[in-house]
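Re: the 433-residue chain
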Amino acid sequence: MRGADGRRSGGAPRFALLALCLGAALLAGCAGTRGQGAATPTAEAAPIPPKDALPLDQAAVALADATLLRAQLPPPGPSGRYRLVVDPLIDRATGTETQATRAMERRIISLVRERHPRFDLRPFTVASLDEKPLVLLGSIAPVAEAGSRANMPGPGRPAAYRIWAVLADLGTGRVVAHEEAWVRTDEVDATPVAFFRQSPVWTPDGAAAAYLRTCALFPGDAIDPAYLRAIRVQALVADGIRAYEEGRHRQALAFYEEARGLAPQDQQLRIRNGLYLANQALGRRREAEDAFGSVVEYGLERGRLAVKFVFRPGSTAFWPDPAISGPYPMWLRQIAARTDARAACLEVEGHSSPTGSAAVNDRLSLARAERVRGRLVAQRPELRERLEAEGVGSREPVVGTGADDASDVLDRRVEFEPRACPAQVAGVGGAAG
């Protein structure tokens, strides 16, 4: 695994992103009218979600009701209602939105509208944030057993998933609620949604880290300052993701370009992926290649670049569908060019999912790393002495379920890690200075 600085450090899964928090909750309010005129339940009647693993829909409802009714809220404004926005829920391990987090979010939004009229649900936009609303954040993570917060002891099918939600009050800068529930494993679809599934590069992102730190907080705690600084940018990113997935690619590009000019450097990965995807969808090949090069620079500057090359099962051959592997020659060209321009040495790490024996996975991951290394050297022969292939097998999964489908593609990635060049290699490469 890697420590806080991104370097490999030990034995546990390597990419777990700090804290956890998830998704299905809402704000709070103890009185008022409900639905068609019925009374809203009192705080004393607020159900505490059971520690049993429930179907996803039931768990989301229990989590949302508890969060709404038990939140420690200040008095509402003159309207008697609380403004509420939902910052899209994410998966704890990958920092991405998945089919499961989207399903929870839809259920929460529906429940707010149906049963909690004291909450004025607004879109997650810059204009809404200017009104200092309550913000719902949430996350999901596999656990060793239902009712537990303990992480899975290793790769494999989890016993259950923990979901949790936090309400943050932008007016006071404090967290006002934190609730949790558990979900049955067979109810969780961990497949990333389209934007994240199609993004070419994954690296731990500063925006996701700040989000998850806030998700780990409890009532009375101050909201993470990095999250507060970046929330307006993340609203623009969310707009861009929605536009991209709805086929409004020019609008998506405009949102990403605006966000790029505002975001801190450590919180730009989703923006750079978005610029690549939007330009690619618009047929702007030169701009798409420049945007991919920017993604590569982001990873190399931070010491890790995880590229989602998709291989045939049990093979070193890339997936044959041109819609998936068609851009790979351009990806390899940019990785080779950017590495060469830095006069850097690079470790090329192949990874595999936990399916199969450790020995087979070690050989397969090394063969894939060597295949990619060979393609990079073909692009830039001067990289021959500066690239080293390594097979990590399945020892460093991100997802770890062994599903071998779109939900755990990150476990079959190839990573590039800059490292110091030996003096004689640096001389051969013609390093500046």
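Confidence is low (pLDDT under 50) at residues 1-42, 429-433.
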